């Protein structure tokens, strides 16, 4: 239950995260929790058709270089 609540608290879009009152309710009741959405990045096989055990992560990243004057 705590892991599921934690996953809800780290949703990519802040609007989809529970607010403090919702979080308190989730922690103090035994009602069903909404399922978390798929993470912004996920682990996939390199080639789903192969039997390879090599895994990669799919993630978009930019890198900036700061150069002083």
From TrEMBL:
Q: Which UniProt keywords apply?
A: Kinase, Lectin, Receptor, Transferase
Q: Which residue intervals define the domain S-locus receptor kinase C-terminal in the entry? A: 28-69
Q: Which domain of life is it from?
A: Eukaryota
| Pfam families in the cross-refs | DUF3403
Does Isomerase show up as a keyword for this record? Answer: no
Coiled coil region boundaries: none
What this protein is called in its record is G-type lectin S-receptor-like serine/threonine-protein kinase
